Amino acid sequence: MRSGKGFAETDRRALIAGLGASAVLLLPHQARAATPAAPPLKTLLDHALQAYPTHSEMLRRLRAGPAAALGREDAAILKMVVRGIECDEAMARDFPLAKPGGGSPYVVSQRHGAWRDVEDGPIGPVNRFHSLEVEADLLRAAAARGIVPPAFMLGAVEAGLKARFAKNPPAAVVREIETVRSLGATAPREPGVWQFPGGPDYYALRLRSATGTDMTPADLDRLVTERIAVLTRRLDGLLKRLGLSRGSVGARLRALKQRPDYLYPNNDAGREHAVADMNAALDRLRPRLAAWFNPPFEANARVRRMSAADEAAGKRGYRDPSSETYYPDLANVHDRPAWTLTTVACHETLPGHMIELRREERAAPHPLQLRYAAGAAEGWAIYAESLADRIGLLSPIEQAGFLQSCLFRLARVVADLGIHVHRWTRARAIAYLEDTVGFELFFPFAQEVDRYAAEPAGFAGDAAHALTLIDLARRRGDPRAFHDRVLNRGPLSLEALLEIA
Question: In the chain, fewer beta carbons within 10 Å around the N or the C end?
């Protein structure tokens, strides 16, 4: 995670992707710190932030400001913020019972809701469970509007509450369980926002928010499926050269995963070997960075092992930008073939997040810019994987790892569209990921699909941003100047990126 001078990475992801009302409320004191000498854009955004959470007033203040005095880049950032606030205003107006920030149309899911946080609430007997009382009311209100979570989500909520309050559950917990159970009787068996009134409008709005453009579901579908076809053809050729010519690409990737010469022993020596291989890849990359980036390069970025306690606890991989370090999760290192890890190192360190995070730190972007640049951080890191390939860093077997990673980033968007637009079942979405990607890179495919069901268009911005960067980079000439334009103003929405880069 980020420490020292930076935000925690998980905090930054929450700020960008799911900030909503609760997180922005922490920020207005920063707005009051503005002085007459502040740059015009900062002053304008501070003035708008003081009006939060009244979206209409925020927009009025932004539109009444001296926009004509802004330079081209500042004007693009202002336009990005205005678009983002307009999306938030539309979401709050048209889907008032959605998750705050609009990241899910449902009051609860297996991933969010007061039911997950109630144990961390106030200790007092009167108000500790008040959030559950409110949540049960919201669930019934949403159901009256025809928006009910799928049965499997409600089942996960009920099971979670029962597990945590197995003995003498308080009245509010009993009431929420009863509410969830009553809705489960009529809840849809399969996911998909197409099933509830206004569902297609919700998805279109989520897509506008996630990409920062007017991209439609059909536009996104075409973009990712065309690129998947290109990547699959290249990966098919690589796998054939590795002696794997039969079956789907996914089946052949699963076969490649089993080859013992690419597997680490599941012990300390294997974990040390995996870390050494990741650092060796970074050492090969470092001398080439000057041709692609103006300094600084974050040249000390390294991979280190987690502590034994973190490994035993199953902690996920995390970054510490203050020390330019990435700690991969290698508790089950035998399940992570060597040919997959170079791409992980490039994504998490160089030329991925470590460069992007340092540039962001120097840019000191306004909180509203962070809020409305969804997709920028992960989009850059996915682009960085392709840049390592373009630089010529990757061996043929490492190219297979890169292509699989990129296919996963795009296939998850296809599965999301399949569920919410094309009416796929969960089983069909899981089968698609298995055929396209082969094996899970982060979480089991069933868990991935359930996340897409709960958080529509959640990864659309990442994929669209990465593909746009890849296309722009090949047309913009000097890569060092291009990367400066992309990174030096802090995170940008896709629309702002197209205007500035």
Answer: N
Distance CA 147, CA 392 (A): 50
Q: How many residues are recorded in the chain? A: 501
Tokens of 18: 């799911």
Q: Helix or strand or coil: residue 302?
A: strand
Whole-angstrom Cα distance, residue 467 to residue 244?
Answer: 28
Tokens of 101: 């920030």
Q: What residue type is assigned to position 348 of the chain?
A: E
| CA–CA gap between residue 147 and residue 97 (Å, rounded) | 9
Residues β-bridged to residue 326: 303, 319
- Cα 256 to Cα 243: distance, rounded to the nearest angstrom: 10
Mean pLDDT over the full length of the chain: 91
pTM of the model: 0.91
The 8-class DSSP code of residue 319 comes to: E
179-186: long-range pairs with CB below 8 Å, 24+: 179/136, 179/139, 179/140, 180/108, 180/139, 180/154, 181/154, 183/139, 183/140, 183/143, 183/148, 183/149, 183/154, 184/151, 184/154, 184/155, 184/158, 186/148
Residue 179 to residue 28: CA distance in whole angstroms: 37
Tokens found for residue 88 = 């938030």
* Residues in CB range of 133: below 8 A, 6 or more apart: 172, 175
Rg (CA), the chain: 23
Question: Which DSSP helix (H) or strand (E) runs through 405?
Answer: helix 396-420
| Three-state DSSP state, 7 | coil
* Edge-to-edge strand list for the sheet holding 325-327: 302-303, 325-327, 318-320
| Residues 295, 282: Cα–Cα separation, whole Å | 17
- The bridge status of strand 318-320 relative to strand 325-327 is antiparallel
Question: What is the mean predicted confidence (pLDDT) over 356-368?
Answer: 96
Closest CA to 209 of 74, 371, 53, 42: 371
C-alpha to C-alpha distances, 377 to 92, 127, 327, 342, 357, nearest whole angstrom: 25, 38, 18, 19, 8
Q: How far is the first Cα of the chain from the last one, in angstroms, to the nearest whole number?
A: 29
Q: Report the sign of the C-alpha dihedral through residues 194, 195, 197, 203, in that order.
A: negative
Handedness of CA 424, 427, 431, 437 (dihedral sign): positive
